[in-house]
Amino acid sequence: MASTPASTSILIINPNSTRSMTAALAPLLADLTHPGLALHFHTGPPDAPPSINDAETSAASAAATLPSVLPLLAAHDAVLVACFSEHPLVPMLRTHLASSGSGLGTRRKPVLGIFEASVLHARALGRPFGIVTTGSYWEAALSRGVRGLFGSGDVGGSFVGVCSTGLSALELHEMPADEVRERIACAAQALVGERDAEVVIMGCAGMSGMKDAVREGARQAGREEVVILDAVRCGVGMLDGMLRAMGRD
To answer: Which site in 29, 106, 174, 205 is 20 to 30 Å from 22, CA atoms measured?
Structure first.
């Protein structure tokens, strides 16, 4: 007997051009699918940067990826931009969907970035949270992003800051696994041990599946129990819940 197609679909966009990063996400998110939800993946075109490391590569990736995404929107109910930043593709897609077509259904499609999704998730837990990220550029950039979301630099004392690994998103996949693990653990140790974070967000889509490294760093800091948030999983879960709340399941 043929299976019934999922009634809702989330399009997950990796706005850089590195297909291996996109391919790595699918098995890590497979347990979030259910008979009413399908996940589909899209990688930025070849002219998108291979890694998003700063404001310039963010802007370049949005400009390159937007045209390739627009023809796909009609086939999906929600969109997740899998770049941990205030990525310009998020407002671009929201603006497009809000202004296109005349039907309410078109304008009801939510668009979310993994940065926003994970920070909202962390804030809801009501415990001190911080972010482990890639290059040092993101320490200030992501701190500004949190301030922009909540209008407060430390979110009433909840946000304890950002610690970087010094690696790019591409290096997370290309460098030896032991070195990557050590870099992530070191950043997590600083976040938990020096800043008292109880919730750690993995601040890069390329870190999905690397919770053990964060947990190792927390243990090195003397904390056995810490909540570790995978930003991509946060985004999928939030969009799935939104679609259900909107009556799209």
So the answer is: 106
